[in-house]
Amino acid sequence: MPLHGNQPDYKDPLAPFFEHSVGAAGLDRVLQVVRRHLSMDVAFISRFRDTDRVLDYLNAEPDCVLQQGQAVPLSVGYCQKVSDGELPGFIPHTALVPGAAAIPETASIPIGSHLSAPILLENRRVYGTLCCFSYQPVDSLTERDMEVLHAFAEFLGFYFDAEAKHEQQQENVTRDIRMAMAADSLRIVFQPVYDIAQRRIHGFECLSRFDIEPRRSPDQWFNAAHGVGLGMELELLAIRKALFALPAFPASMQLNVNCSPALIISGALQPLLYDGTDLSRVVLEVTEHAIVTDYAALAEALQPFRARGAVLAVDDAGAGYSSMRHILNLQPEVIKLDMSITQSIDRDNHRRALAKGLISFAHEIGSLIVAEGVEKAPELDVLRQLGVDYAQGYYLARPLSLDDAVYRSRED
User: Fold this and answer.
1) Domains of the chain by range and CATH?
2) CB burial readout 149-182, b (16+ within 10 A) else e
């Protein structure tokens, strides 16, 4: 179970759009299509600022005098004049339009035909323009072609509106997370892990709770933090708070903390797990869902901690295809059965068969098994019969405050 609790993942409501959005490469493709359809040499998207416009995206024939990222004064060229109504957006032959012929760039570039459509945002504010031009006149252009350009500009308005909303949401999430950390709103609770054979508490899994608005589940907080680049910082804060409680517990008790592979490989854990920490009392949990791109690097980063007695656990085993890769490559001392297997195991032969296989495999390679999410007595009875070593879940105990956890640990 993750350090922050087993809750649904945080979902950015705009994420589906951006996961499948055109992006920079797609916008370049849009400009290619515009150029090809309209027989243009250059197509670009300009973004208006107070005194200039930036050519954020540009697709052109080689040796074009314009460059992507170039800033051009609003007074120069066609875009602002089209936006202000001083020039038509549809100019198949610039020499036939006095206002266009008078623009210096018409001759210097040269521009033989020019088409431009404003990109309007949802609030009707002009974002900029979608423009294209050819070096020679294109007399075959029709009003229908201009309608196509307006259609592309309308799509771009939708795209840039969504992009702005996404950026604003990211800023809001970053602010919320910074405020949560500054206000010391992250609180650690402790869920007992029971030794089934001895029927006593073996240790505690450290889970995070957030006492701040907006109300989000712990996983939503952590996933949102990772989404804005603050995930490891929030992980470190949670682990620091959890380990701060270690001296309060009897020396026989272990504390489980969840660590992402990225955090372990980064080296940022080293200062927290300093030489004065008794790592024989610390279990580092790597979730099954965590993506591992370099097992050799992860194993190397874990080695100093394991050499000092830290226990490695693979969390959520059986929940997906990554379980066995984690286990085979990291050789953990502990394998934690996901609650999707343990819950209803007393009534489901398939779950029981899968659990039996995982338990047998774990013991064969010298690993211990912890069953997560145990909520009913019959589930615990079956798990005990199958040879599970440890268990945790609401049937055994709900997460406790530090004082209650210390009291229970000393009582056991």
Assistant:
1) 39-166 (3.30.450.40), 183-411 (3.20.20.450)
2) bbebbeebbebbbeeeebeebbeebbebbeebbe
